[in-house]
Amino acid sequence: MSAAFMGPAVSMYFNTGYAAGFAGAAMPISFAISLVIAIILAKTIGEFSKVAPSAGAFYVFASKGIGPRSGFLSGWLMFIGYSLLEPAEEALFGTTASSLLKSGLGIDIPWYVISLLAWAFVLMLSCIGAKQSMKMTMILFAGEVGVLLVLCCIVLAKGGHDGIHFEVFSPAMSPSGFSGIALGMIYGMLSFVGFESATTLAEEVKNPKRNVYYALIGSTLLVGCIYIFATFTVVNGFGLKNMDKLASDASPFVTMATQFGNTTLVTLIALAGLSSILAVTIGVNNAIARVIYVMGREKVLPSALGKLNARFHTPTNAIMFQSAVALVLLLLMGFAVGPSNTYGYLGAILTLGIIPVYMMASVGYVLYQKSQSNVRKHPFKNLILPIISSLLLLIPLSASFYPVPEFPYNILPFIVIVYAIIGIIVAKRLERDPERFKRVGEILGDAGSEVNA
C-alpha cells in the first residue's frame, strides 16, 4: 500500500523535470537526501506505530507527544496534502495524454478534454465502488516499475547521452549551489508522500507492531533506491549540459524511450505513466471522499455528505463534493497557469503542507518517549534520529523562503501558512467541545486510510 501510494512511475516521469529545474544535474542528490529523511521518518513513525497503533496515524502521533491542538493541525495539513493531489494528477494526465496522442498518432485533443474525461472516469468508478480497481492498480504498479527499470537499464547499457557520469552526486553540478538542491528536495519529498499510508491500517493487520514497521521501512527503501537509480539514469540520458531540456520536457522518460528504445518501449512507457497517474488519482479521490463522508456523518459538515448510496453503498454525496472541488481547481489552475504548472504548483504546496506534519510526528515521538522515560534507554532511536530528520526537513522549508525563489514559488509557502492559520482558528472554536474536537482531528488524520479500499 505504501509503495503504491508513492507511485514510483508517476513520480519519476514527472517530478524529475521539476527537480532538475532547481538542482540541475545534481538532482540525484536531492532525491538521495530525501531518501535519508524518508527512511529516518519511516523508522520513527514505525516505532511510534508500535506504541500507538491507530488508524488516526499522524493525528495520534502529534497528539500523544505534543498535544491535541498539534494533532488537529497535523490532520488539517494532511487533508490539504491529499485533497490537492487529485486536481494535480488529473491536470498531469490531460497534458501528458494530449502530448502523446499528438506526437505519436497526430491526433490533436486539448488537454482539458482528456482531463475532464479522466475526472469523469474517476468520479464514476468511485461512485460504484473502486475496490476491485484498486486491486488492479497493485498489479499495474508492478508492471509500471518493471517498465521503468527496463528503460533505465537500456539507457545505461548504451552509455547514456555522452557517457556515464557519476559526478551527478557532486553538489557542484547544481547551477545555484545547495539552495538549488534544497528546492529540488521539495519534489524529492513529494515523491515520497504516501510512504506513511501503511500506518493507517495499524488497527486491521496482524501483529501491527512488527508488520507496519517493516512495511514502512521496506517500501520506503525499495522505492527510494528506484528513485536514485532512475534520477541517475535520466540525468545521464539527457546529458549533463542538457538539464534545461530535461526541465522543460513534459515526458522525459518517453523522450528517453524514443531515443534509446523502440516503438514498443515508447508505448509501454507512455501507458505505464498514464496508468500510474490514474491509479493515484482514484486512490486519492477515495481517501478524501471517505474523510468528507465521516465528517458529514459526525455532522461537522452538512449531514447530507454523510449518507451512503442505497445501491452501491458508497458515499456518493461526499464523492461528488470532492470531485466538484477538484474540478474547480483543475479548470481554474489549468487555464490560468497551464496543466503542467498546475501539477508543479499544487505539488509544491501540498509538500510544503505535509513536511510540518512529518516534523510534528518526529518531535511528538521524542516528547512521548521522554514522558515514558525511554530517551535515556535508547537515545539514538528515541532522540537523535528524530531530531536529525526534523533538521533535514528544515532544508527544503528554509529554501522556500531564502534565498527567495522566483515567482510564484516565493508565494507558495505563504499559502500554506494562511491555511494553517485558518486551521488554528478552527481548532480554537472546536475546542469548546472537547469530544467533537478530538473526533474531527482523528477524521482529518485518517485521510489516507482507505486509499486502496
UniProtKB/TrEMBL annotation:
<feature type="transmembrane region" description="Helical">
    <location>
        <begin position="137"/>
        <end position="157"/>
    </location>
</feature>
<dbReference type="InterPro" id="IPR004841">
    <property type="entry name" value="AA-permease/SLC12A_dom"/>
</dbReference>
<feature type="transmembrane region" description="Helical">
    <location>
        <begin position="380"/>
        <end position="401"/>
    </location>
</feature>
<feature type="transmembrane region" description="Helical">
    <location>
        <begin position="265"/>
        <end position="289"/>
    </location>
</feature>
<protein>
    <recommendedName>
        <fullName>Amino acid permease/ SLC12A domain-containing protein</fullName>
    </recommendedName>
</protein>
<feature type="transmembrane region" description="Helical">
    <location>
        <begin position="343"/>
        <end position="368"/>
    </location>
</feature>
<dbReference type="Pfam" id="PF00324">
    <property type="entry name" value="AA_permease"/>
</dbReference>
<feature type="transmembrane region" description="Helical">
    <location>
        <begin position="407"/>
        <end position="427"/>
    </location>
</feature>
<keyword id="KW-1133">Transmembrane helix</keyword>
<keyword id="KW-0812">Transmembrane</keyword>
<dbReference type="InterPro" id="IPR050367">
    <property type="entry name" value="APC_superfamily"/>
</dbReference>
<feature type="transmembrane region" description="Helical">
    <location>
        <begin position="318"/>
        <end position="337"/>
    </location>
</feature>
<feature type="transmembrane region" description="Helical">
    <location>
        <begin position="66"/>
        <end position="85"/>
    </location>
</feature>
<feature type="transmembrane region" description="Helical">
    <location>
        <begin position="177"/>
        <end position="201"/>
    </location>
</feature>
<feature type="transmembrane region" description="Helical">
    <location>
        <begin position="20"/>
        <end position="45"/>
    </location>
</feature>
<feature type="domain" description="Amino acid permease/ SLC12A">
    <location>
        <begin position="10"/>
        <end position="395"/>
    </location>
</feature>
<feature type="transmembrane region" description="Helical">
    <location>
        <begin position="109"/>
        <end position="130"/>
    </location>
</feature>
<feature type="transmembrane region" description="Helical">
    <location>
        <begin position="213"/>
        <end position="235"/>
    </location>
</feature>
<keyword id="KW-0472">Membrane</keyword>
